[in-house]
Each structure stands twice: as C-alpha cells, then as structure tokens.
Amino acid sequence: MGHPEKAAKFIADNERMHWHDKALWFVRQKRDIAAHGLDEWEELRRVASEIKTHTIDKLDFYLEEFEKNAKEKGIQVHWAKDAKEHNEIVLKILLARGAKKLVKSKSMLTEECHLNPFLEENGIEVIDTDLGERIVQLRDEAPSHIVLPAIHLKKEDVGKTFEKFLKTEKDNCDPTYLTRAARKHLREKFLNAEASLTGVNFGIAQTGGVVVCTNEGNADLGASLPKLHIASMGIEKIIPRLKDLSIFTRLLARSATGQPITSYTSHFHAPIEGGEMHVIIVDNGRSDIIANEDFKQSLHCIRCGACINTCPVYRRSGGHSYGYTIPGPIGSTLGASKDLRTNKTLPFACTLCASCSNVCPSKIKLHNQLYKHRQSVVAAGLLGAKKHTILKVATWVMKHPALLDFTGLMARKIVPKLPRSILYSKANIWGKERELPKFPENSFKELYKARKK
Amino acid sequence: MRIGLFIPCFMNELYPEASMATLKVLENLGLDVEYPTNQTCCGQPMANTGCAHEAGELAKRFLKIFKDYDYIVAPSGSCVAMVRENYAQFLEGEDGFEHLKTHTYELVEFLHDVIKPTNMNASFPYKVGIHNSCHGHRELGMASMSERNLPAFSKIQKILELVDDIEFVTLKRNDECCGFGGTFCVSEDAMSAAMGIDRVNDHLSAGAEIMTGIDMSCLMHMQGIIDRKKLPIKTMHIAQILAGEQ
C-alpha cells in the first residue's frame, strides 16, 4: 500500500483526522509565535543554512577533527558505514561490558537502523525512555513523528496502553496520572540500567563533544546513572564550532514546539567518572545523498519536525501513512533518496505548496527536492505505465493545437449530454467527492476569434 | 508595450468567462494585448508528475510562441511559477529564455508591480475570502507567508482594494493549501478532497459569500466540492471581480 491508500484510511475517520490536524496546527501556531517573536529569525535561518552548507562541503575534515578532539577527552569513537555495522558495534560494546539492560533516549537514527529489534534478538532489554517513544514501544508501533512520537494517539489510547502494560487504573486517562505512572515505571528502569544510548543533536568538531536536547531530562538520567554511555550520531550532525551551537539551539526548539529552548540542552564532553563513553558515527546512505547536488541539502536537517507540523498532507494522514522512519516532507525526500522503489509514492504525497521550505530553520528547499524526486521516479520507470501513457498522450495533443481545439470542442458538446450515471462512473476519480465544472458552450479561443472578426 | 496573453489550457476550454475577464482587465487599462492562438499548455502537469522529457518539449514550444512579447501575462499563479521557477531546467541558455523568465507575470502581480492602476472602475458589494493559492503565494511572492518573519503585505488584497464596496473576511488559516495540487487531485484524491473541504469551511465560517483567488485550478477544485455539498458560497476568479462582473 502506498501513501494515497494509507492516507485515505486515515481520512476515513473524519473526526480523528481533524483532531490530528488541529493538534499539529496548534504546534505550528506555537512555532509561529516563537519565530515571529525574534526579529532576527530570518537572519538566523540564513546563517544556519550557511553553516550547514559549509560543513557538509567539508564534512570529512570536520568529522576527523571531531574524532581527534573526542578521543583526547577520553571518548571512544567508532565509524559505521551502514545500519548493520552500527547495530553490531552497539551490541559489541554492550557485550564487552556484560550490559544486558539498555535505556535509550530519543534517537531517530536508531529507528532508522532498526536497532531495538536487533538488540532484543540478541538478548538485550531495550527501554525507550522518552515518554512518547515508550508509549509507542509498548504498543509495538513506530513513532509517527520525529519530535512527538505518539502524536497519533489520544489520551484514551495511552490510558488503555498503560492499563495493559503498567497496570494503571481502568479507564483512567488523566494525563498527570498517566505521566506519573510512566515516571515510576521508567525510574525503575533507569536505576537498573547497565548502559544508556542517546541520539545526538549536535556534534561539535572543535570540542569533540556531543549535545543532546530533550524536554524530559531522560537523556541526562540515562547517561549519568549507568557507567556506559553510547551516543549514535549521523555524519551530518557535525557543526564546526561551539559558538555555532547557539544558532541552532535558538532555531531548534522554536521550530519544533515553539519553546525558546528545550528544557535540557545537555553537553557530553567526557565519560562520567569511572565510566565509558562511546560515539558511533553513522553514514548509512548519507554519503550517497551528499554526492547528489539535487538532494544534498536534505542533510541540513536538524530534525525539528517543523516541516512535518506544517505539512497539510501529514496533518491529515498521520506519520504511519508514509511507511518510512521519518514522515512528512523531510522523510519523503530522505526516504526517496534511500530507497526509491519502496518509497515511490512519497514524492507525490505533496501538493508542492512549499510551506515546508519556508518553515524550515535551515532553509532546505524541501518541495523542490520532492519535485525533483518525481523525475527520478519517472526515470526509474516507477510512475506506472497508465499514468505515464496518459501524460505522454496529453503532451502529444498539446503539441497539436488544432487537435486540442477539436478535443475540447467535442468534450464541450458531448459531456453536458452524458447521463450522470456515466459521467460519474468509477473511472471519474475527480467526481468521487467533487462535481465536474460546468462545460461552457465555447472555448475562450473561439470567443476571442469571433470577437476579432 | 505588447502583451502576450497566456491563458492556461484548461481555462481556455472550461473557463472562457474568467479568461475573457483577464483580457478585459488589461484592455480596460489601455494595454495592447494579443492572444497567440497556437498556445496550448505550459507543461506544468507533466513537470509536476516528474515527466521532465514531456514538460521540456512543451517548455520549448512555449518559449517559441511567447518570447517576442514585451510581457507575458496569465491569470494563474501556478502556470507563471512553472515558467519562472521550473523552466530553467529545460531552457537555460536558450535564446529569449532570460527575457521570458523575467517578463512573465501573473495578472494581479502585473497590475501591482508594472501597471500600478489607481482605480479599477469596478464595484463588488460582497464579503470576499481570498484564497492564497500556494504557487502564487510562495513561489511568486504574492503576499507575505505565515511561515516567515517578514513584513506583512498582500498584492492581491491591495489590488482588490481598488474595487468599490468590497469587504474582506478574516480566515483562521490564511495560507493553507486547498489540496488541488495538479495531478495530486486524482493521485491522492481522498487527501485532496479532505483539504479542499477544510479550506471551503474556513471561508464559510469566516462569513465569506465569495471565495476568490488568482488560480482557477484551486477554485475549480473547491467549486466542485461546494457544488457536491451544496454549500452557500461561490468561487470566482479575481479577474472577473476586477473586470467589474458581479
């Protein structure tokens, strides 16, 4: 099933679809208030985009600088060319310390690598500690949003899930009650954990440290209690200098949720006393994206989710309709870059409205990328023979004005005479929920020519 | 100043009134306008579906037909955006392309930026909701976008303010997409309709009697929804309001 079919299913529950749309529109509005409250907003975006362009162009240099400085601080650095290598490195580090219980804070990279199922198959208990992530983990679902992983769920859904797994009171879906239950449950997991894994929002080449932004403090607790901390970082997370960080932290939380800054902006620059810290630098297809001029800008992404919140298609179809780790505009371009065949409907899950490109804090021209990916879909022969033929025939007609005039004339004569049962048959997709325009007697061209005489 | 009138192919076939109104608006301002009758389609549906080869063929055809006009004016933001934003891939370096790219205007934009009329000699005593269609809005920059932190403006409203007795309504979502999206309207038909319904409802609850905009395609999509649901609101292309129709 491609995006159109899954979207149609989501839309079929009209009440829930609108609830989802409004929830995310609310986040978008909060973002607007925050963004419009900073006079220098557009300047920040410009600088962020320039830093990213510069860094991606010199990525090898900055990654090596990061590695050197991290090692000097006692951080062990590993390189993974793909998801498989990444997962194996994590397992190896855990097994070497005999760690069987892992607490994780939010990391879309580990979702991308499908780390959890791999570790579980190898006998490791993996607990996601971000509240939203924990909720979807208990339900055996994927996150439906990169910042708000459980945004597809109502409090009643969460109540039922907790009732089943955390033995909370029946039908109690009071958010405070449920949050406290989760806190108690997670606290125990934190205290018993033997290792922690965090994502990375920013890796600073100059200092060799990593920065993790959360609202729940779960990354800090995880990284501070057990003696082993693993941080998984995509190669594009590097920024050159510590002073560049403030540009991005000012943009990140405002873009994501409308907060001036995340509750926790945690800098990890060394192992904790008596502990170990590892950073795994992961490529997993990113180098291929950098090699493509049309799409390399997608690596500017700081995973704020603003393009997702603003996307009118995402808001009405939910994250799971995309079938890729990351949904929305950024996910559609990354997914298409990663595996065009599997994700061939994603570049078309978009009206090219361009809201995403204008909301993006690092100025990725997302809609242009989706436009371009469509050409890749056609070039790869994945558009579908029927669609392609229709457009080829249409183009041929458009190259012959007399033929177009004749076709138009016939349509204007015949269509108004057709009975409704034929006109609105199954083949008329437009007409499923819309009336056709009323066909006029004359074309503009006919009127124009008549007027000239 | 010779103006080449560029009428989107589907408007020529289905919306002769709005097309004629475009011609009238320009002629009423004393401009010399010609409609080259061998024009067909700018190639946007092909380009937006990824058919670059087909779009390229139509782009080349378009250039040949329109390159000798001083200005090319069309009653459509998205077709103009196709020429200005997407033709480069097919026509970069071709003789006349730079001129075509910089001299192709959407009607309202042309009035606002080039002609700068002070009066339209038109009256429209209705409550109007402006539909900011995306390509005009975000590609051509017809108005300030809600996403950006830049000074507020609207070329569409400014030109419409030249019409007497017109009243504007305030929408909850000023620049959300209506879901037409070209071939999107059939490839994602459920989504397209859902987005269209939401947009129409926003205008309805704001008290609009007429929804207007610079793109007939968006309006056609929403009128289709209005007709199916028999809603008490109508769409009307902006050219018809500017031409004095009521």
CATH topological fold name of the largest domain in chain A: Rossmann fold
Number of structural units classed as domains of chain B: 2
Number of domains of chain A: 3
Largest interface: A-B, 75 and 72 residues
Per CATH, which architecture of the largest domain in chain A? 3-Layer(aba) Sandwich
Helix content of chain B: 40-55%
What is the residue-mean pLDDT of chain B, rounded to a whole number? 98
**Main sheet record of chain A:** 6 strands, parallel
Uncertain stretches of 5 or more adjacent residues of chain A: none
| Oligomeric form | heterodimer
Can you describe this structure?
The complex is a heterodimer of chains A (about 450) and B (about 250). Chain A contains 22 helices and ten strands. Chain A is of the alpha/beta class and about 450 residues long. In chain A, a hairpin with a 4-residue loop joins strand 5 (about 200-205) and strand 6. In chain A, helix 3 packs across helix 12 (about 240-255). The longest helix of chain A is centred in the first third of the chain and has 23 residues, at about 15-35. In chain A, about 50% of the residues are buried. Chain B has about 250 residues and is an alpha/beta fold. Chain B folds into two domains: about 1-115; about 125-240, Rossmann fold (3-Layer(aba) Sandwich). Helices cover about 50% and strands about 10% of the residues of chain B. Chain B is built from 14 helices and eight strands. Chain B has helices at about 10-15, 15-30, 45-50, 50-65, 75-85, 90, 95-105, 105-115, 135-140, 155-160, 185, 190-205, 215-230, 240; strands spanning about 1-5, 30-35, 70-75, 105, 125-130, 165-170, 210-215, 235. The longest helix of chain B is centred in the C-terminal third of the chain and has 17 residues, at about 190-205. The two termini of chain B are about 30 Å apart. At the A-B interface, helix 1, helix 2, helix 15, helix 17 and helix 18 of A face helix 1, helix 2, helix 3, helix 4 and helix 9 of B.
